[in-house]
Description:
Elements (H helix, E strand, L loop, with lengths): L4 H16 L8 E7 L2 E6 L7 H4 L8 H20 L2 E2 L8 E3 L5 E3 L6 E2 L13 E2 L5 H4 L5 H17 L9 H10 L5 H4 L5 H10 L11 H12 L40 E2 L4
Antiparallel strand pairs: 1-2, 3-6, 4-5, 7-8
Helix pairs in contact: 3-5, 3-9, 8-9
Amino acid sequence: xxxxxxxxxxxxxxxxxxxxxxxxxxxxxxxxxxxxxxxxxxxxxxxxxxxxxxxxxxxxxxxxxxxxxxxxxxxxxxxxxxxxxxxxxxxxxxxxxxxxxxxxxxxxxxxxxxxxxxxxxxxxxxxxxxxxxxxxxxxxxxxxxxxxxxxxxxxxxxxxxxxxxxxxxxxxxxxxxxxxxxxxxxxxxxxxxxxxxxxxxxxxxxxxxxxxxxxxxxxxxxxxxxxxxxxxxxxxxxxxxxxxxxxxxxxxxxxxxxxxxxxxxxxxxxx
Length: 271
């Protein structure tokens, strides 16, 4: 397939923007280009895999661990947002662990530059359905869409399950549009109430009702976590709580049972 001059220019311009977004919590792009009509990116290697591999589905994280990870991801996203770049695919599979176990945001492959305020033309619908904000599903992603996705990840970390579930793409989409997630404290009563309130605000269906920035969300979560405490002796029966988990390959790594409805569904029709 021959790449058009317009697409070639768009790809190169976008890669140049990604190269300028440097942060300790973003996977570093070493080189990019188009060779034999095939676009390529060369990035740093993350030796410890993804957050999903470290904490498989059904794993409950302590509040301090979730707060620390959220702060690192928010630092990376805030820098992207300052450049008007929306990631559009924030999920555990795209959060890598670096050499010092720092979180590295990766995969800007379907990220977009925000239109000018007067340009109301829709974007293509792309992302991982289970983590897509309502407005992103409708072709109108905004900076707050990444906040919604990160809040879903935080919800999953804190109670071991994603609040958006369904047996079909339509069912999952409708839950994003109209379903109110089950309160976190109904599932894990030891979660501080202020933490639950922060996550609920970031999951608002209307992006205008979320925090003013991804950094505001992370800071509010950190502040809220200081008003309560969760301990390994207080978590619900049948749930393993890991702070520094064993290797993903370890036989001792325990998680809650999951089913096929937890699998992510990706919608991506290109840049």
